[in-house]
Structures are given as C-alpha cells and as structure tokens.
C-alpha cells in the first residue's frame, strides 16, 4: 500500500495544556486506520489539526507525497481530506442533494441545476450502495444512519481520498452499524482510506486494519494489527491499567426499604405497554434491551418529557403530574440524557453555569444570583466528582466526554435529587474513565440515591445494577436480581419477547 498521510512529531498547545505532544501517524491508501485513546488523549485535537481547524506549533504533515498545511477545513476538504464528526453538520431543512453539494452547488451561468444535482447525488449514493435514498428527501426526516450516508456522499462529492469518522456508531443500532461497516468496506475497496475513531473495541476487530494509540497527546503505539492485538494490550496502552471494565462491588444487601420511585402500569400506544417497577433508596435498577425496545421512551416518560396514556408515577409516595418535567425535578428526579451535548449541556457556557442551571433558587438572593456562593458550591461539587480540569469558569465544551458527564452529575448533586435517571451514561466515555464513572454511580447509590440506568451495553447493566428489568417490544419481560443473570439469558428473553 502507498502512504496517503504521514504525521510526524505534531505538537499543539492551548493555554495551560499541551493537547498533542509529538504525535505520529501514518495512513495508507484503502485501509481503515483506527485511532484509539482515552478522552483527553489528544484524538480530537489531532484530527482538528489534520482537518485545518487548528494550526500546529511544530511537526510535519505529509499529504499524498508532499508537505501540507491546511488553512481551514474547507481547504482540507478541497485537498481530499474530509472529517465527519459525531454531531453531523447537515442542514435539516435542505434536501439530500442540497446538503451533498452545499458550498459547491451544481450551477451554470449563475443558475442552480437542480436536475443535474439530483442525478449526481444519486450517483454518489449508489456508489455507497444506497441508491434508494431520494435526492429530494428532506434531511431532517432521516434517521441518524441515513444522515451518515449523506455526509459520506458529501465527502465523496469533493473526491475525498481520506475520511475521518469520529464515533460514527454512537447513535446507531446493531443493524445500522453492520450497514456502516459494509459502506466502509465499499469505500476502501475503491482506494479511499478511513481513520476510524471509536471507544468500542469490539468494532475495531471487525472494521479495522491497523491501530494507532494515543496517550497524553503522544503516540504510544502505531501500526498494530487491529484484528489480532489482544484487547488487554490495547487497554493497557490507553490507560496504563489491565482491565476494560472494573465494576465496583455491590452492597451486601439493601439496607433501606424506602420506595423512592414507583411506576404503575404506564403505557404509550406504539411505544410501550403496562410498564411497572420500583426503585428503592440506594438501589441501582438497570433497563436492559435492544435499541427500539422502548427503554429510552420509558425513561423520558418517567421524567415527564412524554405524557403516559395510562398509569401513574409516584416519587416518595406522591403522585407526579404526568408529562411535566418541572414537576419531576421538583419531586426529586434528575436526568442525564443520552445525548448530553444536545439535550443536557449548554456547550458554550461555563462549567459552573451548567452545574447550577437546575438549582438557581438555591443561589437566589432578592431576585439576584449570589455568584460567589454559586461558584463555591459548584467548585466543591466538581472537586468531589474529580472533574478535570477543576475549573468552574472553563467552557464545558472544552472538557472530555467523561468530564462533561460528571458536570451533569454535579448538577443533580447540587439539587439533592432522590432518583437519578441515567440514559447511556458511558456513551462516548473512554475505557479508562468508565470504571471511574461506575464508582461514582455506586457512590451515589451508597449515599441513598435511587438510580435508574439504561445502557445498550448489556454487560454494563449486569455489572453495575442491583436489579435488572429486561425490556422487549415495549414490555417488561423480566424483573429480578442482576446477580447470576448473563448476557445470553437477556438476549434470549428479548428474542422470545419479540417473537411472542
């Protein structure tokens, strides 16, 4: 294979931190090169330098045999290097064809050539094996998987030779992930190279050819075979530790019988039916099931974001007003949503504002916010959760995924919530930070908080929860202790429930 991209000794520094510290990387034509590392290891900064979003202080980038320095993402794209971020930058109100050719529209004599654009878009989609997607369809009506295909087609419209994919499977179900891998294989068979970034090590085995590992901004391993390098070796390189998952020990037994949350027969037509369960003080209850089983919809209904058609929800024995988030929060419920960046965080605001936003009455004095107390209380909370860096005025968007999740936990700690609802709490969190997140969740339960947990990773639910609800086809198929339950048993229940 021919070297398409070579990076040598790259350095990028921000005020107070060196994000990339002498990183090396080489990518060959037609390969899938997996880039691994904990949150904060320098992956995002490295790809932003490659894409022209940042300028490095030192190092060399060699692109297609010549030294290169991209002044902007558009310059990189025109050179054939495209980046598809986890948060896709498509315009929902435009059609598929308009998104694909956005910024380099098909035109003649200043007039848009809609038919030519549609035909060209269909050709690009067909190249990706998705010629069935209409070029006239509005992108906002498409699934996450469909939007990814449109983003890939847009990259190909610029004749991209290297496509960087940042956590592309994070919002996809298993079938959509398989389709993504098929599309990637199609691209690489045409000589296009892919840099694939993911925290899911099982995906690396399937889709990857070679692996580069970053730690503390440095390349600690490069060119490892993706399919044969032991998982333990990859985890050790990323974290300095020997295990991918480290679940804290469960408590010896439930010491508090207080029923903090009681869900009684709630239903929403087409989503779930007759859901009942309880969460006690100090108990972690996990919802296990496949994507589309109704798990997230159940959580959102409990939290008041959706209104149940039937049933009741009680907190501390008091019935909640259905379909009211405000009532849920006042009753003592807190939610860390699946999409923390779009649904949970104010990305351009400081850490302290994100942590205090649900607690403004606590800091209000005569209609004004007592800023000194707000900063002091948030500083204490983020210190207890070991948010790094422990800087309350830092914009939350600059933190890693794991630390952003801790800021959301700090929000509900300040609120003294009774029941904490966690939807995919470790999505986008590196393997080193996962065990830390597990300890924090277990610590909250130890302090008497009831925890309701959803994760698409069944081993995570089984390892962390005290009790597990298996959900399938919108129904509770099993409610019992997590101890002794296996992933195979859960999947068997789900499959049987779907067939029933």
C-alpha end-to-end distance: 51 Å
Estimated radius of gyration: 24 Å
**CATH fold name of the largest domain, please?**
Rossmann fold
The CATH class of the largest domain turns out to be Alpha Beta
Helix amount? 25-40%
Indicate how many domains the architecture comprises: 2
Q: Find the structural class using helix and strand composition.
A: alpha/beta
* Strand order, largest beta sheet: 6-9-10-3-11-12
Tally of individual helices: 18
CATH architectural group of the largest domain: 3-Layer(aba) Sandwich
β-strand percent reads 25-35%
Please tell me the overall pLDDT. Answer: 87
The shape, in one word, is globular
Per DSSP E runs of 2 or more residues, the count of β-strands stands at 24
The CATH homologous superfamily name of the largest domain equals P-loop containing nucleotide triphosphate hydrolases
Largest sheet: 6 strands, mixed
Low-confidence stretches: none
Ordered list of secondary-structure elements with their pairings:
Layout: E1 3-14, E2 17-28, E3 32-36, H1 43-50, E4 58-63, E5 66-67, H2 73-79, E6 81-84, H3 96-100, E7 107-108, E8 111-112, H4 114-127, H5 144-157, E9 162-166, H6 174-189, E10 193-197, H7 201-207, E11 210-215, E12 218-225, H8 231-239, E13 259-268, E14 272-280, E15 284-288, H9 295-302, E16 310-315, E17 318-319, H10 325-331, E18 333-336, H11 340-344, H12 351-356, H13 360-363, E19 364-365, E20 368-369, H14 371-384, H15 401-415, E21 419-423, H16 431-446, E22 450-454, H17 458-464, E23 467-472, E24 475-481, H18 487-499
């Amino acid at each position: 294979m021919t070297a398409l991209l070579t990076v040598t000794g790259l350095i990028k520094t921000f005020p107070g931190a060196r994000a990339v510290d002498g990183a090396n990387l080489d990518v060959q034509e037609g390969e899938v090169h997996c880039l691994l590392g904990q949150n904060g290891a320098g992956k995002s900064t490295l790809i932003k330098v490659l894409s022209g979003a940042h300028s490095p202080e030192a190092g060399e980038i060699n692109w297609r045999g010549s030294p290169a320095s991209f002044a902007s993402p558009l310059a990189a794209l025109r050179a054939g290097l495209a980046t598809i971020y986890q948060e896709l930058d498509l315009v929902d109100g435009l059609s598929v064809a308009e998104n694909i050719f956005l910024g380099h529209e098909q035109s003649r004599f200043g007039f848009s050539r809609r038919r030519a654009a549609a035909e060209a878009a269909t050709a690009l989609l067909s190249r990706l094996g998705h010629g069935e997607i209409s070029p006239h369809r509005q992108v906002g009506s498409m699934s996450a998987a469909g939007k990814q295909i449109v983003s890939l087609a847009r990259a190909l419209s610029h004749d991209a030779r290297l496509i960087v994919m940042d956590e592309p499977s994070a919002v996809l179900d298993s079938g959509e992930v398989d389709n993504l891998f098929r599309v990637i294989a199609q691209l690489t068979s045409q000589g296009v190279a892919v840099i694939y970034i993911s925290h899911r090590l099982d995906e690396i085995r399937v889709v990857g050819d070679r692996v580069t590992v970053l730690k503390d901004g440095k390349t600690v391993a490069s060119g490892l075979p993706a399919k044969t390098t032991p998982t333990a070796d990859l985890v050790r390189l990323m974290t300095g530790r020997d295990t991918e998952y480290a679940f804290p020990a469960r408590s010896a037994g439930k010491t508090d019988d207080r029923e903090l949350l009681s869900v009684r027969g709630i239903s929403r037509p087409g989503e779930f039916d007759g859901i009942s369960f309880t969460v006690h003080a100090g108990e972690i209850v996990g919802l296990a099931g496949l994507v589309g089983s109704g798990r997230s919809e159940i959580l959102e209904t409990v939290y008041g974001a959706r209104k149940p058609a039937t049933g009741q929800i009680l907190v501390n024995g008091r019935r909640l007003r259905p379909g009211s988030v405000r009532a849920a929060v006042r009753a003592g419920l807190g939610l860390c949503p699946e999409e923390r960046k779009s649904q949970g965080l104010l990305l351009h605001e400081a850490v302290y504002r994100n942590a205090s936003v649900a607690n403004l009455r606590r800091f209000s004095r005569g209609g004004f916010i007592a800023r000194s107390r707000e900063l002091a209380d948030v500083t204490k909370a983020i210190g207890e959760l070991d948010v790094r860096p422990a800087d309350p005025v830092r914009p939350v968007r600059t933190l890693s995924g794991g630390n952003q999740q801790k800021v959301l936990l700090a929000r509900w700690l300040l609120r003294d919530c009774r029941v904490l609802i966690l939807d995919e709490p470790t999505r986008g969190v590196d393997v080193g930070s996962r065990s830390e997140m597990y300890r924090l969740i277990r610590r909250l339960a130890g302090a008497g908080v009831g925890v309701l947990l959803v994760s698409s990773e069944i081993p995570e639910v089984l390892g962390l929860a005290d009790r597990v609800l298996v959900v399938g086809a919108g129904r509770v198929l099993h409610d019992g202790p997590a101890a002794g339950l296996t992933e195979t048993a859960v999947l068997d229940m789900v499959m049987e429930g779907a067939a029933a």
